[in-house]
Amino acid sequence: MLRKIKYSKITIVVFLTVLIWVWTDLALDDRLTVSNVTLSVAKSTNPNLWVSFNQERSFSLDNIVLKGPVSKIAELSREINNNSLKLDFSFYPEWEGMTTAGLHTITVRDIIKKSEEMREFSSLSVESCEPETIDVNVVELLKKPVTVQCIDESGKPLKTESIDPQEVQTLVPGYWLRDKLKAQVKLELSEIEKARSVAIEKRPYVELATGQTREVATTVKIKLPSEEYPLNEERITATTLSIALSPTLLDEYRVEVTNLPQVLNPIDIRATPEAKRRYEMQKWPLMTLYIFDDDTKKGQEEQRREVIYNFPPEFVSQGQIELKNPEQPAEARFKLIHLPSAESP
Prior knowledge:
The chain has 345 residues and is an alpha+beta fold. The chain has eight helices and 23 strands. The strands form seven sheets. Strands 2, 5, 7, 9 and 10 form a five-stranded mixed β-sheet that branches. It is extended and about 105 Å long.
């Protein structure tokens, strides 16, 4: 006769077995070292403060060591290795009582332990961090008038017919001087074409540091001039570079351009067909490197200077010729070699 199966005992045995496995997993801790962890400043609730890590919004940590149950560490390691998880922790200045301007130092381990992101890994703890501390800059922002400028998507300045208003009030670092007090309006290609026929409204922004911008509360109306001379993107092969220096230096020094092939690389310009033709055919050299008397103070040390493009002045004044990227002219590297008395004229 079969014995009656006691399901209650089986249930207890299964429960105890699972409990032992769970307890064993929790009892055995493992560690995981993670590199390239990012600590980012969360948006401050106080608009009058700018909080950064030495003017950077985020800081890359070399290593943090996490400790926790073997299964959780293994799961986290898999997610990091297959790029499905990137550890990025947020830093809230208000949580640390940073409400006044000045330089503060935070303990990274404590910040990560209190972060919202660590709550998702409640079974894990932060054992150590590199670096252990980070300096935090808190700058007070003051309302000042800033001049509005217009740029395209590449950051190149755009000629404007009107900007209304030309100055707006906004919060900027109190130590900014007049030449720094600028706000920018970035126009996409479609907006540029529209602004040539009618004024468009857009909100400017100030750039506190690279990649850190704040919008201005006031909108401005922008009107661009109609393009009288459509410019084509052209490439000109540079063959000549003139070197201009004073008669005094001419008698005593010769100039050695150490990167001449790079300086004579093709020139990318925007120009009308006639302006391009005149530039290529002119009797003047296409580019000039100017050497100043004070350059002799550096001896034979290699120096750097941007070359000047000798575009025909009449076409420049009419906006018919310009570098494709006016912010990046060719840069010549040169040395001044002192002539021995026998070589002197």
